[in-house]
């Protein structure tokens, strides 16, 4: 048990330290692309009022909320799918590996595709295709390994195309707010969208336990063991 804990805590500690260093570097070296009007007076109440009257920001907030909630839900249910539905948990590493590689390709090509389609249309197409490829798992036999992995490659590629768009659309939303109100509030816009990100992660976190209870995914004896050792079922 001590070896297992060390194998987890040591890499996480290293990653935490590196994260702090990178955050500090980013904070020191990042500059505002567009400076607000020097005559503009800071007002949190006015910023919030402008924010909630900004239609594109509301859409982006909700999109970000469900976007990251979907990532967590998907991540939580796929390992149990291969363990209890497909019956071969070893396939999960292949499924995950090919999918992540495809995701990176989608992210890398996102800018080029955006120039041809535009951010809004690409984001809608990306989410639609990702949803369709996810739904296909309901009709694909659990033993059709190659088909399942191929569909995951297509889903992750589609999903990856939308990856950079949320971040770039934050600036677009801030630009729209400035055009509409005459006041720029990039910090408020960005922090509010990042709040939606964390809210989506938090709301979806119990999904594995909820799905397990509602679908009787785990047999009763296993469910008792999982409850004691991992806190779910």
Reading the helices and strands in chain order gives HHHHHHHHH
Mean model confidence by pLDDT:
81
What is the rounded distance between the termini? 22 Å
Pairing-aware structural class of the strands and helices? mainly alpha
Shape: globular
CATH-level-2 architecture? Up-down Bundle
List keywords for this structure.
single chain, 233 residues, mainly alpha, Growth Hormone, Chain: A, globular, disordered C terminus
In short:
The chain is mainly α and 233 residues long.
Chart the SSEs and their pairings.
Blueprint: H1 2-29, H2 44-52, H3 55-85, H4 91-117, H5 119-135, H6 145-181, H7 186-204, H8 207-215, H9 220-230
Helix pairs in contact: 3-6, 3-7, 4-5, 4-6, 5-6, 6-7
What does this 3D model show about the protein?
The protein is mostly helical. 81% of the residues lie in helices and 0% in strands. The chain contains nine helices and no strands. The longest helix has 37 residues. The radius of gyration is 21 Å and the shape is globular.
């Amino acid at each position: 048990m001590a070896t297992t804990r060390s194998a987890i805590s040591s890499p996480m500690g290293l990653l935490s330290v590196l994260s702090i260093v990178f955050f500090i570097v980013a904070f020191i070296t990042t500059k505002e692309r567009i400076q607000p009007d020097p005559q503009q007076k800071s007002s949190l109440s006015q910023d919030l009022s402008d924010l909630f009257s900004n239609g594109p920001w509301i859409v982006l907030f909700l999109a970000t909320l469900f976007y990251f909630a979907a990532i967590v839900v998907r991540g939580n249910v796929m390992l149990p799918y291969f363990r209890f539905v497909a019956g071969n948990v070893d396939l999960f590493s292949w499924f995950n590996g090919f999918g992540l590689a495809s995701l990176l390709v989608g992210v890398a090509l996102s800018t080029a595709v955006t120039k041809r389609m535009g951010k809004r249309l690409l984001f809608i197409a990306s989410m639609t295709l990702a949803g369709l490829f996810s739904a296909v798992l309901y009709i694909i036999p659990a033993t059709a390994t190659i088909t399942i992995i191929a569909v995951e490659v297509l889903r992750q590629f589609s999903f990856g195309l939308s990856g950079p768009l949320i971040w770039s659309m934050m600036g677009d939303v801030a630009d729209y707010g400035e055009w509409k109100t005459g006041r720029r509030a990039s910090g408020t816009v960005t922090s509010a969208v990042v709040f939606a990100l964390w809210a989506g992660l938090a709301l979806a976190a119990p999904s594995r336990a909820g799905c397990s209870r509602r679908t009787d995914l785990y047999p009763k004896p296993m469910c008792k063991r999982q409850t004691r050792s991992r806190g779910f079922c």
